[in-house]
Structure formats: C-alpha cells, structure tokens
Amino acid sequence: MKYIAVLLIILCLSCSSDDNTPAPTPNSAPQSIKIDAITFEGENVTIDWSDAQDADGDQIFYKLYINSVLIKESTESIATSILNYNSEYSGRIIGTDKKGGVVEIDFEISAPKSKILFYTDGFSSLIALDLYTLKPMWSAQTSSLESHTISDNLIYSGIEAIDGIDILSGEIKWTSTPNTNSNNIQYRNIILDDTNVFAFGPNSTLYCVNKNTGGKLWERSFLNYYAQLAIDADKVFVSSRNNDHLYAINKLTGLTDWSFLITVNNSNPGASSQIKTNPLIVNDAIYFGDNHGNFYSLNKNTGLQNWIIHSNQFETYYPSPTQFKESVIVGTYNTLYAYNQNNGSTIWEYKPTNGTLETSPFIYNDKVYIGVSKNGSGELLCLNANDGSLIWRLDLENNTTSSPIVFENTVYIGDWNKNMYAVNAETGTLDWKIKTEEVIFRSPTIVVGASETVIYSSVSGLKN
Asked: Which end of the chain has fewer CB within 10 Å, C or N?
C-alpha cells in the first residue's frame, strides 16, 4: 500500500506540472512581398522590393530567381542582374525566416527594346553602339565602303563571305560563300528581300543566294560596279559610279529585263558618263542622277524615260535622292534641289554659302537634314522640306561624308575628326558627342528591337 500511495503522489504532481507549462507559440510566417521597382540601365536590371514584415521580428532571408536560375541570396531586398534586350523573363522571390516560415512572389520582367547605332570607321570596323549606355557592344571587320542591311536580327557584312551577324552579340549566325575560288575577298552592296540575298563579289560579279540555305542561285558579271543596289518585288536595280547604264535585273533568273543608257553630254565629250547616285524607287518610277548634270525619272517596269532635267553640265549629282510628299529631294555637289516627282519641275533649291554636299538628305518631320564638307570643317544643315529655307546649322569639327539619320528627334552624323554627333532635330543643339577609334566615312544605321524598326540613310538604297 505504501508503494501505491507514492506512485499516486508522483502521478498527481506530474499532472499538475503539465497543466501549468505554457504551450509553445506558433511561428508567424513572413507577410507578403511587394515589388517596388524594376529599372534598367542598358541591359543591367535592378529589382527592388519591400521587406516582408514578420510578426515575430525575425530577419528574412531572400532568394531571387530569374527564369528558375538563382541570381542572389541575401537579407537585402534589392538585387541587380544582366538581362538580354528584347526578351521576356519570369522572376520569383522567396523569403524565409529563421524558423522556416516562407513567403514568395512571382513576377514578369520585360527587358527594353535594344537601340543600336551601327557605323563603320576608317579601320573598316563595324561598331555596334548601345544608345542607352553610349558604349560599344561589339565590333567586327567589314568593308569600309559598305552601308549595312539588316533583316531578322542580323546585320550583313562581307569579309571572305557574306555573313549575317547577330545584332546583339556580334556572332555570325548565317554565312554564304558564293565565290569559292578567291581568298581575301570582300562582298559589298549587300541587299536582301524575304527570299534572297544579293551582293557584289570579286570582279564586280553580282551574286544571288538563297536567304535560308546560303546556296548560290545565280551570278552575273558587271564592270567596275560598286554602288548600292535597289530592289522591288521583281527586280534588282544596278547602277554604277563607273559606268553609264542602269540595269533592271530579274530576281529569279539574273537576266536583264531592261537597261537604260544615260544621256551623253555632247558639249563635253571627253567626260565619261557615270551614275553617281543610288536609285530611288517611288511607286512605278525610279529616280537617279549622273555626272553631267542630268537627273532622270524612268518607268521602273519598262525602263522608258518619264522625264529628264538638264542642270549645269559641269555639275554632278552625288547626294542620293529621297522622297518628301510629291517631291524628290536630291543634290549635286553644290546645290540641293526639290523636284516635282511627276514632271521634274523645280520646287525649290538651296545652295550652301560654301562647301560641298557629300552626304545624302534625310527627311524627318517636314525637315531635310544634310551634311556639308568645307575643306577641313563641316556643317550639319536643317532645312524646311516644303520650301528649302534654312532652319538651323551646326558646326562639325571636320569634313563629313556620313549621311545623317534621324531617330526619336535626334540626328546622328559622323565626321572625319573621329566624332559621332547626336543633335536635337528641332533646335540643332548638341545632345552629345563621342570620340571614335577612327574617322567615320560611311553613314550610320539604327536598329530598334528585334529589327522591327530600321533607320537607313538615303544613300543605302533602302527605305526606312
């Protein structure tokens, strides 16, 4: 009985002790996470979020994932990373307290559309300049005479082969070698449509290759041709700065649909006839000028002449034509003209006070932009496209043969003093100027996003 009593006492004490011990407090999980801001500087993204509140006062440990890849582990509620332009990403932040409480949030990130200025310098380097950061993204060797064509996120260049280079990475994604018998060759004047790529190779041979396979479809020999090409749905238009014909070449066969012999200037028979401008196609007409002061409008389907302008016989049409409303704007070395595109009548003309026009005009918001070389210095001019009156001028440090382009109210032009300029298109004030590795002879091109917007200069032979 004594032992039983002792056991009862112990049991009672044990029960009394359990009743008096407080139950453990359950852990409170962290509360929700909120994304405060996602900001970009070029391809660098900063993700900022509000700290998750914890009722227990526990410190929160965060993990940031982008596309299921762990980017950062930290107690900080901010993180940076590098994302590719023109891409969509899925993000996740997981917050954990020291007792295992978890909170998480999923979100989406849209990287900015790339804005890239492509230009070629005197070292024959093709430079991809990021317009967000004003820093080069990559460079590649190219022809110093090339104005580059862009399609399907590729920019085309022609050292040893016709190469399609990724606009973001600079990697060669497509290549074709239609001429396999020569080394140290260049392909130039590259232009393409949805199906084929056209380019001049060695010995002024024009090649047509399939855009998908890179296989050669046909070739056609010319003499000393190196001007830009122009294309429509059916034909490739070939002009030369060293020859006196404009040819309309059938895209499918490489045969001549028609050719046009430019007018011989009888008063100056010793001067060979040459086409100096690139051809401009507007509806059913094609426009171009020669070195005898003649400017032509032809029917692009038949090659028959619509009209011809005989200006000063000693003037050479050099700036390539562009279109504004019902006019064609084109220049000689000395004068810029606006002609009625239907009959060739002169609407207006503008003659710089000094210097020569060695760039081509660009139209933007009813204004004409063109560069002037002044034997060691230069100017960028802005004219009223309706009447040719001067709106503003900006001094450049040296000559310019780089035709201007305009994008988002900014004019871009290079000069021979290793400068690339960005100028306010309305006021003519300088936004910025950067030094390049070498002089800039050729015209820039701008590509926005996945090449859905491309800004070509008038000299390129392509329209924007």
From this structure: N
Q: Which residues contact 191 (CB under 8 A, 6 or more apart)?
A: 149, 197, 198, 199, 228, 229, 230, 231, 236, 461, 462
Cβ–Cβ < 8 Å for 443, 134: no
| pLDDT score at 23 | 56
The 10s digit of each residue's pLDDT in 202-257 is 778 899 999 999 999 999 988 766 667 899 999 999 986 566 889 999 999 999 99
pLDDT digits (tens, 9 = 90+) for 318-361: 999 999 999 999 999 999 999 999 999 999 999 998 899 999 99
Considering the entire predicted model, what is its pTM? 0.88
379: region left, alpha or beta (phi > 0 left; psi from -120 to 50 alpha): beta
What are the per-10-residue average pLDDT scores of the chain (464 residues)? 47 49 68 93 95 84 95 94 96 90 93 96 92 96 82 93 96 94 83 93 89 94 75 89 82 95 61 82 94 93 95 84 96 95 96 93 97 94 98 96 95 96 98 94 93 87 61
- ∠ CA 49-62-59 to the nearest 5 degrees? 95
- Amino acid occupying residue 335: T
Residue 233 class from Cβ within 10 Å (0-12 exposed, 13-18 middle, 19+ buried)?
exposed
Query: Do 334 and 356 meet the contact criterion of CB atoms below 8 Å apart?
Result: yes
Nearest CA to 449 out of 115, 69, 48, 82 is that of 115
